[in-house]
Structure formats: C-alpha cells, structure tokens
Amino acid sequence: MEIRHSHAYQFSGKVTPSVLRGVMLYVNFPTLKCGRIGLNPLRGMLRNNRVKAPDSLKPSGGEEERLLAELDANRLPQHIAVIMDGNGRWAQRRHLPRIAGHRAGVLSARTVIETCARLKIPALTLYAFSMENWRRPKAEIDFLMRLLREYLRKELPVIHRNNIRLLVIGRPDQLPAAVRADVVRAMEQTAENSGMKLAVALNYGGRAELVDAFNRILDRVRNNGLANARVDEETISQYLYTAGLPDPDLLIRTSGEMRVSNFLLWQIAYAEIYVTETLWPDFTRAQLYEALLDFQKRERRYGGLAETRQRVTV
Fold it and tell me: Can 182 be counted among the known catalytic residues?
C-alpha cells in the first residue's frame, strides 16, 4: 500500500505489517483499521541511542535526516512547551490578512504535534490563546474561535487514533459556549488515551493560573478548618492547571521575542529556553530537531556545579 501525505511536509513509503507494528503513523487510513496496541513510536527506531526514522517516515530532506540522526533518544525532553508567535508578521510580510497567518500556523502545529508524538515526548503544551488576546479586534478573535473548532473537528479523530490525550488549560469557562462544548467533548473522547499528553493553553495566563491555584488552596483550608495548614511547592503544583504533568524542561519561542509572555510562569523555573527568529508558520520539523539538539547540548545543573567541575574542585 502506497501512502502519500500532502501537508506542509512530504513523505511517501511502503507500509508493511512490520512497519505498522513498530511505528505510529500520524495519518488518516481510510480503509485500514489500526488499534492503539503495539503502536510504539520509537520501537524499532533506536540504534546506539540515536533516533532512526523507519522507511515509511523518512525525513523529507538531507538536513532533516542529518539532524534526526544526531538526536539522542535517551535525552529527549519530558515536556516541551511552545509559544507559537509570529502568525501576524508572517501574513504582513506577504501582504496577506492576519487570519491567513493563523491558518498557516495550524500546519506548523500539526507538524510539531505529529513529530513529538512520534518521538514519544510524554507532554507537549502549545500556547494557543492568551487572556491578553481578547484585546485584539473582534473579527480576528471570532476567526480564531472558528479556526479552533475547525481544527478539533478535522484533527481530533487522528489525535484519538494515535492515542494522544488532549487537555485544555486556562479558563475555558470564559470561552464562547460552542467552543466550550467542543473542547469538553474532545477531552472526554481522548481521556482514556495513554500516549502523549497534548495540553492546549486557551484563555490562559500564568498569573491567573497562580491566582486560581491559591484561591483553590484557600477554599480547601476554609472548608476543612485547616487553620494550621502549611503550603509548600508541591502543594501549589497540585493546584495548577498542569497538575499531573512534568514541568517543561524545554520552552521554545518563535519570532525572536525575548520574553515568556505570561506563560507557565511557575512551571518553567528550570526550563531551557530556545528562541528562534523563525516565525511560527515557517517553523518546520527540521527546526524542531535543531531545538532538541540544542537542548541536548545544554548542561542542566539546577543551581549546582557541573559534574566534571565537581570532580576538579572536590
């Protein structure tokens, strides 16, 4: 069977039973039924701790292949967070309306989700709509809400088939009723999936998240008469929107802006930050590999000394 994919990336290849047992394909099979059992994204892809693409998912170019071969599968992040910035500027440079940039950005999101799932990254968080975004023109906001609903309608079956669990973090109760209904339905449909957790930040603000967490803690104290209750970091983490997810160890921001924009303020305390000048609609799989390689070159000391330096000074 010949499969061809025609999104922002291209690949083709022969699918055999052995391939289907070893690879998770992020594509829609119109006639072939594939269960979730046995679709391990990295099984059969590792050799000498390097990530190796199977024949059916060969990189689309030499640069992708080179970058993929350099990745150490044992040192991939546990949680990647992405600030998807630059849609408007992408459209402006092409003399297009801003909404064209948002629609083009969906293709980049699809590429990143598919690639992270294939690499078996446990968690991915995408910053889709901030609380500050309500300040934008109503026409743009209405389009973004329609685009979200369109995305869920088209992509949710594929996400579900590939064992990805969809989460929404933020204050979704303030979203339009139709959007809320679609979001709840999507989370319920994927609630039992055991693969990558995809958290989409909608109507999200890092400070608002902390306020909500502290208020929930105060409610617990008041309702249970815990006058002597003490709060520590673990307690706060349990009341965040991201409770149950590991803290991001890699934060990617596109468009070159050197700020975190009120995103996961508590959780990124020790995250490695990777900023690229690339605008989000131009962010490719190869550039994701570059970010991962940069992450693997970092020395994560968490305030301590490097291991080699410790041996010298002790």
Answer: no
